[in-house]
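Hi team, as promised in this morning's meeting, here are the two structures we talked about. I've kept the exact order from the run log so nobody has to guess. The first one is mostly here for context; it's the second one we should focus on when we meet again. Sequence first, then the predicted structure tokens.
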Amino acid sequence: MPQSSSLLIDLAGVSRLAGVRRPVASMWRTRFNNGPDAFPPPVSEEDGRPQFSAPDVAEWLARTDHGNNPHAEADLASVAAPRGFLFSNAQAVAELEALVALSHLAGDLDKCTSADLTRFAREVDPSDAFLRREIEDHARRGSPWVDYVLNLTDAVYSPSAAMQLIADRSASAGRASASAGALAPEVAALVVEMVRMLAQTDSVVRLDPDDASLSSMLAQKLGDGVSLSLPPDAPARRLRRRLRVDGLLLSADAANPAVVVARVPVARGADVSSMLHTTEEVALSLRSVDSAVVIGPSRALVDELPRPEERERADILRSGWVRGIVRLGKGLVPSASRESLSLWVMGNPAGAPAIPDRFTATADLSAMSLTPAARSDIVSDIAAAMGAARDVQARQFRFAGLVPTTSLQARSESLVSSSARKAKKSPSTGAEVAARLDIIGSSIQADFDPVEIDPSPHNVLRPAPVSDLIRDRHLRVVSGTRVKSELIGSDGLVVVRVSDLDDPSAIGGARIDQLVFASEHPRASLTQPGDIVFRTSPTAAAWVDRDGSKVVAYPARVLRINKKDPGGLVSEVVTADILDAMTGPGAWKRWSLRRVDHRSAAPLARALNAIAEARADLEGRSARLDEYATLLVTAATSGAVALVDASNDRNA
């Protein structure tokens, strides 16, 4: 059988193998194009991309000490591929996965003939449920990839990891999968947590046979306490291979309550009508004890639809099974980065009230990152909404709002409108908030003079998207300035960099000479008091510049509130909202910012400034006490000074 010498690698694979960025690999090929240490020449070409002998590349990296991976030769199979193999070829990928599964179930395949492989496949899978057919096809090829599978499993340490790597590489090669591509880890984690919330002690989780990656991850995360099943007559060969390699078995007990997991679309190019048809089939399959989680594009599950599709969706809602609707953000399907996802939770509410008396929880998380805390809160919101009336009354919803289920059936616009958004961090009723303010205010009087409050209700301004606030001229975005690093010094104007937003106490360490800045950037503006300096990656972060006259270095930017017409915006509140917001390019346009009635805005800003100053004073005092304690210990243990027991003098 072919050995590792038949493995090929492209320049993207070289960069992954060496642990460097893609341009570095291209530079090596250009710079070291001749001489004794020349980069290996290409041996073939595929879709216009040069292919190199993977072992030759690994040997060159080791011999010339290039790259950041000392184990390049051992890791070779994880980034290379056999000659003639394409990760974009579904049949080839299926054969490769079947070989991994067979090597796990039948033992070492080293030195096996094609006849041996076929015999092992018939013994392991006599009913041809998950690998026999693929192994027989591969045997007819002459079994060219067995050695690669063994090397791959060794490189990633386990058959399960090998299956995941194959899935990742095939998904990456098949970017054309679009909306049907693999889910981002954070949204897959949300599905897991929703299913865990719905699953009872004796529940069976019915996995989606068409999304092997999601279903495999779901099966592993749920653990041994939950039984797993597949829809009747579902072939699900790829998923069955993954489950067998992971050591997970399927249950045949159809009588137990089921939690159905469904992903739409099931195929590339599926239209809205077919997605709704799949969703309707899920709803129709549910019994009174069952529940379901459906994840799919917002354009089908939430957004405004043409009349025919709107009627299809209304028919599903008319069943009364939809208990929760959550709109998520974009970028959660890497192969369709502009696609917004939504999630439906279906089930029979506690007490099974009549459909006209049912409520559905709706939430808009499109401007939020799916952090563990955010996932936990939205799952708790949906769980409460599916409970009895007392559960709903006891729950202080963070994200969700309750709307009559019947009103959703007649809604022609988006099912999750901006009016359904909940103000963040509003955990109580007005009376409870006023009482809590009074209690906490009394407890902090030693550090801060509590704000005088009027317990009578005031006007509530709903949160608004940044794009709307800019359109209405309540807010303005100011780009940062591209400051050359060589001009940064220790004197002059303060420069605020994106890294400074992780630790605002570091602001002031980087400066630029005022005359040099004016010469280099004659049109650039400085910050004004109250400006919010922000960034969108790697995490959302913001800081209020209370003094102004600072340089904001790109890619950091500024949100500037219109002081003549702030629209209820308060700098400190905006900053708090950004810290919880979704990250990524362009995400800031979809951020939802809380607003304050004009009568409360000025007192709130003054109070927050005073609290910040009090906190800084307390932190300074705490730091000085820490330093004093450290010095006391050092002095006593080193003999630098002797400590006098003053209490003995007083008692003498």
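And here is the second protein, the one for discussion:
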Amino acid sequence: MSQFDLPKFSDVKPDQIETQLKQFIANCKLTVEEKLKQSHFTWDNLIAPVDAAEDELSKFWSPISHMNSVVSSEELREAHDACLPLLSEYGTWLGQNKALFEAHVAIKEDASFNDLTTAQKKVVNDAIRDFKLSGVALEDEKKQRYGEIKSKLSELSSKFSNQVMDATLGWNKHITDESELAGLPDSAKAAAAQAARQQDLQGWLFTLDIPSYLPVMTYCDNRALREEMYTAFTTRASDVGPNAGKWDNAPLIDEILALRAELSELLGFNNYAALSLATKMAESTEQVNSFLHDLAVRSKPQAQKERQEVIDFAQAEFGVSDLAVWDMPYYSEKLKHAQYNISDEMLRPYFPEEKVVNGMFEVVSRLYGLKIEKVPDVDVWHKDVSFYKITDDNDELRGGFYLDLYARPKKRGGAWMDECRTRHIKMDGSLQFPIAYLNCNFSGPVDGKPALFTHDEVITLFHEFGHGLHHMLTKVDVMAVSGINGVPWDAVELPSQFLENWCWEKDTLSFLSGHYETGEPLPDDLLEKMLRARNFQSAMQMVRQLEFSIFDFRLHQHYDASTNVQAVLDEVRKEVAVNIPPASNRFQNAFTHIFGGGYSAGYYSYKWAEVLSSDAYSRFEEEGIFNREVGDAFLHHILEQGGSEEPMDLFKAFRGREPSIDPLLRHSGIQ
């Protein structure tokens, strides 16, 4: 694969990482210092060479950071975490380099600025903004404090994620009596039996990984087991539950919040939520609060009705009157089956991995004219990983991606896309092609059967692939705004949520599904039931997401030294939630999105971008879901532009107007 600059995962040696990283950082610093000796600054003599050095650093660090998330080991984690202060120190040195800041200002004020491309101008403007947000104008003492805070936050964030992973791995349930598993689907039992065999155990082994946890909560008749697993899952990394105090993240949360508040104050912001919005599409904290509140007001009455339906059903059909939170998924599934005669397990045989992956490729082929092919003999981090290349209908190579679909020990939970390589023109004039990592945590093949996905998992895969396409299909050749770079956090979910819509289309399902034994597509009667059940409990799902979003934003907007995190969450739940969990629930202690990832004071982005994605999709509903002209318009105005222009301008160029919230409510079945 000579066109790609692929990492060598097999060459990563934990004991050499820190020494090598220091060399890359030293080279970056030297490049900056050398280029600042010039008397006149231009894009070509300053920004391009500094970018090139930064890219070498990024290409070195990317596989290390990625492997720490997907095939972690004690040695790798230790080496990775030892490097975080070095990276943080370098980031602060760069962001607070006054001479570099002034050089960017000089480029902007020079007459030649008008000759730069739109993307290049955006890079210069964004950089000037980011220098200010890095404390370039602070007095020396405050600059130093800024650096200390950034370094400590990086360390705490990594420790938070590590402790969630350790707590998830630190609990399992071994069962030898099959009668305790009544109601559990064969697929879940087979996976649990396989997990037990891998540990040289008889019977069945359950873990807190989602493919193991969810089927128990949804289908298992054994209420005590559901309660036990719910308690273990919702008390991970906390002061309560089966591993109480062992990996408690509560002190880290308090420290992270205090440091974020101090950082905001240093930079002249009223709170961390306001600082977060300085680089986002939303214009003010009032706008975000109003947006979330409006959605909550419109969704909660329906969510309360949906919850009452489950309570009434459990009482009428099963004589159960006192529903705990670990009963809700179980009786909800029974109600869904009673109303629609459908379940995820009935659909699973129709979504074998190969059919789904090829079907997803067919969707983007019809929309954008893309061809996706697996590339053999590529160095990967695990035997289950594959690499693919993308070409367009002009036979032009556009990018590549690694696909890592299955859950396994020492792999971070959830699903995510990350960048491996960024598209840009290198100093020698050649083009570096973009490469993405696409990661999920699905059940792998069991007992000789292929991996079989639930429809929810199919949607998750499409979501991550949507992110990947945003990164790989960019036509922007400037690193800082190429692909997902430079895209405001509250707009970055647009392409991912947008692609999910095709998972519900009859035309798509005809080639996206096929029974793993017979190849027969999803039968019409099952399809109709699935479509009718699409918005089952959608308002309950909506208020759950709003609970997380409002909690995150309120916590960061109103934090002070007296803030009790649990009390804030309890207060938010009283306002918007319909299922109030027990006092032992420590959801926040495993909320890696905001304490271990990039969503702090930004979790609202999912709902914000869903307004954009629903409205963008409504154009396809109007003009044809595989209308190539509309597909090309989305490709050109959204996917190819990366972060080179403001997202609202790009959206309006595609849709012809500002976004409307109505398609989101309609798609969610909320009146």
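Starting points for discussion:
Residues 285-318 form the longest helix (34 residues).
Strands lie at 172-175, 204-207, 371-375, 386-391, 397-406, 416-421, 424-425, 431-432, 435-442.
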